[in-house]
Specification:
By secondary structure, this protein is of the alpha/beta class. The protein has eight helices and five strands, in the order E-E-H-E-E-E-H-H-H-H-H-H-H. It has a five-stranded mixed beta sheet, with helices on one face.
Length: 247
């Protein structure tokens, strides 16, 4: 089925699903794979966060058409880097067929984790969220992706074992403009931290944290962000956070 959405490159087709997939011709197999990943993620996140999935579609964009993909501003996102955009209706996950080599490690889990990360952003931003430190929003997405992976039986431990721990820093230390390598190290640290939180406290803290973020009406500073996370973790949360070198 051809689509004529002005936010989509011409000639693209649509694959129906829980999250419809708009894709370039001859990408039917890749689109079906992405649909499966998204259906798994949307079902799991709805249960974990106790919320209905947002109105959303995914765009599987070929390398040749990447510059034509919808985006928030005039600057093209680097090729191979998925993102979520509200510049079109319905909002869209813009996904490449092949991930940028920036994403490390490259394992069987990498592509699903990245897609679920962006899907989690879409779930979080279906309601208004006040300004927060970047690490808090990114932590929600990485911990959510890890929660889905655990439910789906993805080889998550194998992926985590291949992460380069690199120089030591905390999830709250990285601010301002950073290069791709630093951003990847930041995201990997958040993933490790998210997995540790899931193992210690279970999935319930994600629902509590996301709903608490939706209830905030004023800008969330660093102290408040730490308090939101500690409260969401529940009993022992503050003590656990103080014990974590990532935090």
């Amino acid at each position: 089925m051809l689509v004529h959405n002005p936010g989509t490159p011409p000639g693209y087709e649509r694959l129906a699903g829980v999250v419809p997939i708009v894709h370039a011709p001859r990408m039917e197999r890749s689109a079906a794979n992405v649909r499966s990943i998204l259906e798994t993620g949307a079902g799991a996140l709805s249960e974990v966060l106790v919320v209905e999935p947002p109105e959303l579609e995914a765009m599987l964009i070929s390398d040749a058409d990447w510059e034509q993909a919808p985006r928030e501003n005039t600057y093209t996102y680097p090729p191979g880097l998925p993102y979520f955009t509200r510049s079109v209706h319905p909002p869209a996950l813009v996904l490449p067929t092949t991930l940028s080599p920036t994403f490390q490690p490259q394992t069987k889990a990498t592509y699903p984790l990245v897609v679920w990360h962006e899907l989690a952003h879409a779930f979080l931003l279906q309601k208004e969220v006040v300004r927060t430190p970047a690490w808090l929003r990114e932590f929600v997405s990485q911990a959510s992706a890890a929660a889905i992976a655990r439910r789906a039986g993805l080889p998550l431990a194998e992926h985590l074992n291949q992460i380069d721990r690199g120089p030591e820093f905390t999830i709250r230390a990285l601010r301002g403009h950073v290069d791709a390598e630093e951003q990847m190290a930041f995201q990997n640290l958040l993933l490790l931290f998210g997995v540790a939180a899931l193992e210690e406290f279970g999935e319930g803290f994600l629902e509590r944290l996301v709903h608490a973020m939706w209830e905030e009406t004023n800008t969330v500073d660093e102290e408040r962000a730490g308090g939101l996370l500690a409260n969401a973790l529940g009993s022992g949360g503050r003590t656990w956070l103080r014990s974590r070198p990532e935090f």
